[in-house]
Amino acid sequence: MDFQLDEQSLRMAEIGKQLAAEIAPRAADADEQRAIPTESFAALRSAGLYGAGISTDLGGLGARSMAWLATVEQLAQGDASTALGFNMHYVATRIAAELPSFDPEVKKHVAALVIDDGALISAPLSEPSSSSLLPGTFLPTVTATRAADGGLRVSGTKMFASIWEASDYAFMFARPDWSDDPTSVIAFLLPVEQPEHIVVEDVWHTLGMRATRSNKVNITDAHVPAELVLGPIDDFVTNWIVAQAAVSWGGYTGCYLGLAEGMVGWLTENLGTRTAKGYAQPMGYHPTISSAVGRVATHVEAARLMMYQAAWNADTTGPGLGTCHAYLKAKLMLADAIGRLVELGTAAGGLNALMRPRGYERMLRDVTTAAIMPPNAYACAEMAGLITMGLDPSQAPSLATA
């Protein structure tokens, strides 16, 4: 199989590479201050990336899975927090613009908000009682009631709401109070500027990805106008976790892929050129160092090939259990590759790699969440194993929902 990128993916990758160089200088300060680098998001807007996930018939770029993976793979090498946060905008806009069950007029309205008005949309999908080991727990706990104007009133709590404070709207799901089906949800865009109804708790003081500001958000009777109510999603686990694997968690897996590649690049550059006192050759000639770099580069490249194969599956065969299976295996492979990178690469880099001004230390902190971002690496292994054996993941005790 030829893993060469198509024309659109090559163009998007080049845009991502150029932007990575532009946003990289802001990454250290944003990490230190736990601040969303708004200038970096402005640069992404100016480059036309806000419409990446929106189909061309609605005025967007229509970037499919492979093209978007190529983009975030590059962006993450400049600033992983910006890449991860902005990927949630891609998730929100692509899902909002293409799900068949959503209102066509609302899709057009969302596209206009993003492309014409430059709206940034967050996608807080995690629940306060959820676990990345248990995909079924991502059923929304936010509730929605019908409002008199045809819109909604929503209440509840969201966790890990990346870039909420920089966004204009939040793409969200809620359980409609008019339905008895616990797996039925309704999707909408929530205007975030409702201070009397929405309160952000600053709890995101964490090891890595600090500039995503993935805080807790408490929502009480907030209003969703009728023109921002997208529509229903039935059988949430099947139609979201399985059918939307390429979109809902494929892109941010690509962010961690790019981050891992950045770490390998740092090791290659520093260990391949730095000379120890008293030696004439670069320290990379030491067999322990060359073996470590060889191993981690091989693991990361294997993960890259699996990620692009999964994206190719998504673009050519569409959503389904086979595509989900490919993404599960790719994310698991990447988590394992990063584990080896952290173990072998950091030891080979030595204390010099841990000096904060050098840049590797921030990447090391950022990459630690790769294995626990949903689906958790253990969940990936479990579900991949079940699908490999021809078993139904929804019947597994650890994945079943009440």
From TrEMBL:
Domain Acyl-CoA dehydrogenase/oxidase N-terminal span(s) in chain numbering: 7-90
SUPFAM superfamilies listed in its UniProt record: Acyl-CoA dehydrogenase C-terminal domain-like, Acyl-CoA dehydrogenase NM domain-like
Keywords, sorted A to Z: FAD, Flavoprotein
Domain Acyl-CoA dehydrogenase/oxidase C-terminal: 255-373
Superkingdom in the source lineage: Bacteria
Pfam families: Acyl-CoA_dh_1 (PF00441), Acyl-CoA_dh_N (PF02771)
Named cofactor requirement(s): FAD
Entry similarity comment: Belongs to the acyl-CoA dehydrogenase family.
Name recorded for this polypeptide: Acyl-CoA dehydrogenase AcdA
Source species: Actinomadura meridiana
